[in-house]
Amino acid sequence: MRGEEPRLTFPADRKVLLTVGPGGVGKTTVAAALGLSAAAQGRKVIVVTIDPSRRLAQALGLADRNVAEIVTVQGSEALGEPLDCLLLDTRAVFDSIVRGYSKSDEAAQKMLDNRIYQATVQYLGGALEYAAIARVHMLVSEGNYDLIVLDTPPTANAIDFLEAPSRIGELLNNPAAKFLTKSSRLSMRFLGLASSMMMKVLEAMGGGQFIGELGAFLSEFGSALGEFQRRAGDVAELLVSESTGVVLATSANDFSVREAKAFLDVLRERGLHVDGVVLNRVDVELPPLAHDSVLQEAFGDAVDAPSLQRAADIYDEAREQAERSRKVRHDLERSYPDLPVCAIERMNPPPTGLESLAKMGSRITRS
Ligand SMILES: Nc1ncnc2c1ncn2[C@@H]1O[C@H](COP(=O)(O)OP(=O)(O)OP(=O)(O)O)[C@@H](O)[C@H]1O
Ligand SMILES: [Mg+2]
What we know:
By secondary structure, the chain is α/β, with parallel strands linked by helices. Helix content is 57%, strand content 12%.
């Protein structure tokens, strides 16, 4: 690896950083690392993860905590400003939107208990992704943090994640949804007026409860839907604003880098600001063995000839892997000359403790 590693620098107005990239490349690790190093520099930071594997939770000792609860990472205060962390799921975010925008606590509770609401939230396409950005948007509006780091799912889902705000918009703009929201009062009146008759018929058919819930859903969710729609636009705006920067993580192999490059192009096409690439788990470059007997000299008589041969093969393989990392990096730098590519070597043990994560973060961002 070179002595002078490029670092990622972030414009002062970045309030949100997204870590994105292919599966298993280290997005969650990089999110935690960036969060910890910014906190170590005295900034008030929260790391938000929707990673279903909850690896970050385990790494930061938060595995048993509830989703949607902001927790302070134990031990982070020793490194600087305490770091907050938040694990999300779709339901939790939508519930908090309903709570925030219903007419009363009672109305909110009625909605939360409504089975049609529950099914809608569960089956809404891209809902998890939308929910995550919507929650980040709320955090930005609340203004309690200098920096919000959002860990995202692997690239395949991340496309969903970019499309989520417009999909929510489309969903709410489609004629059926419009009819539902606009006609909610009408439906209620219809249901109310006709209730005695209709309910009896429906109850007899076993559908009374369903119709009752549909009525409540239509009347209560109407206003919440409007709020969702307004937010979808805000959320989409936040993604492309100067407040949001993207850090693309990738492994140093052909497959991941190909996927990462394709994603990078999509991000830029959509107007997101990519601040740099973390080429993660890069193998350390090794010099060729000075001469054939160098291993023999190192091990002495302790190992037999076949074991020595195996050691030589492993060394060669490690050298080749490092050479592949180097080529991949070169290719990335040539393809995106304006983007800093920061290489982080493969660590053993992997960086899961607070100190190693903070150190990794400062290697990404500082010289
Ligand atoms: N520089 C590194 N050296 C060694 N191990 C690493 C390094 N970075 C990350 N890892 C390890 O690689 C594994 C994958 O990392 P991580 O969970 O952060 O990836 P991810 O991109 O978030 O995965 P997913 O796509 O499943 O969400 C973890 O076991 C992590 O500890
Ligand atoms: Mg992850």
